[in-house]
Amino acid sequence: MKLIIPMAGRGTRVRPHSHTVPKPLLPVAGKMIVERIVETFARTLDRNIDEIVFILGPDFGQEIKDALKAMSDRQNAEATFRVQKKAEGTAHAVYCAEEDLDGECIIVFADTIFDMEGSVSIEDADSVVWLKEVEDPSRFGVAVEKDGKITDFVEKPDEPISNLAIIGVYYFKDGAELKKEIEYLLDNNIRGKGNEFQLTDALDRLLKDDKVFKKATVDQWLDCGTLPAWLETSGIITEKEYEEVDKDRFPDTKIIPPVYIGDDVVLENCIVGPKASIAEGSKLKKCTVKNSLIQEHGQLEDCNIENSTIGRHVELKDVDQEIHLGDHSKIGVEV
């Protein structure tokens, strides 16, 4: 089975971090968002994903491909790369992998982290759509169901027709059928919201062709689309996955759970937590870190940070404020 992941977007709401790394590669408690998504499928599906198709922007470099290839290797899947040269909507993004749209496939827009108990049944379905019950369906595209089958899709309904929000995850028994409907939209220039080619329009055409759509309901749906949302999600996952830290590892540092602390991290005379995530290879001296996320190989000294996001290889000294810094930034140190 193929897993197709459109991820060509620039993630402008998580800048400065998305200047150098696509949003799905950002870490949450030491693991990339996209890898968490793949692991959820591995746990909840009754069949293996043997190929992951990544749809990238035209300016995504080799370092990004190497990271995605390494992640695919860890999941025992082949990595394939396609390019979306211009953003023209969700259906257009999927169609950029047109040569991969055949047989069983899952399409996931990697903007969020989701989780669920048990397994997903895809038997006797032409398509399965992952959904989450929400209090305010007017903010989302929703699915309408009857007797366990989906009968309609509605984008941000004014009337409370359904509280089942579409989270951007879809299974198709035959990707070629979806490809045919997307081609119809493109060939006839049928555009939806935002004057773009929308995947829900292709789904509507499949529904009208009497294809059987079933639902998979998730228990947890966490946003990573803005800096505050990324921090909040990181805190939730850190708390969920927290394992007690060996106090002998950092004898002169106070750890306030929950925290995530990666390998080869050095902490000297620090207060860390709650909801702090410090990635591998980082070194902190005389720092207080609360509800913040520090990526790989950060070096901080005499800093007091809260509600902050720090990129890779950042060097900070004498910082006492909320701060959001991209990779390789330097503040308070010699350059």
Give an overview of the whole structure:
Helices cover 21% and strands 31% of the residues. The protein has 335 residues and is α/β, with parallel strands linked by helices. It has two domains: 2-223, Alpha-Beta Complex (Spore Coat Polysaccharide Biosynthesis Protein SpsA, Chain A), CATH 3.90.550.10; 245-331, Hexapeptide repeat proteins (UDP N-Acetylglucosamine Acyltransferase, domain 1, 3 Solenoid), CATH 2.160.10. The model has no long low-confidence stretch (mean pLDDT 90).
What is the CATH top level name of the largest domain?
Alpha Beta
Count of alpha/pi helices: 6
Assign an overall shape: elongated
Strand order of the largest sheet: 5-4-1-6-11-8-12
CATH superfamily annotation of the largest domain:
Spore Coat Polysaccharide Biosynthesis Protein SpsA, Chain A
Task: Indicate the radius of gyration in whole angstroms.
Answer: 21 Å
Terminal CA distance reads 49 Å
What is the count of structural domains?
2
CATH topology of the largest domain: Spore Coat Polysaccharide Biosynthesis Protein SpsA, Chain A
**How much strand?**
25-35%
Low-pLDDT parts are: none
Mean pLDDT: 90
Tell me the CATH architecture of the largest domain. Alpha-Beta Complex
The number of distinct β-strands equals 27
Largest sheet: 7 strands, mixed
Structural class: alpha/beta
Percent of residues in helices = 10-25%
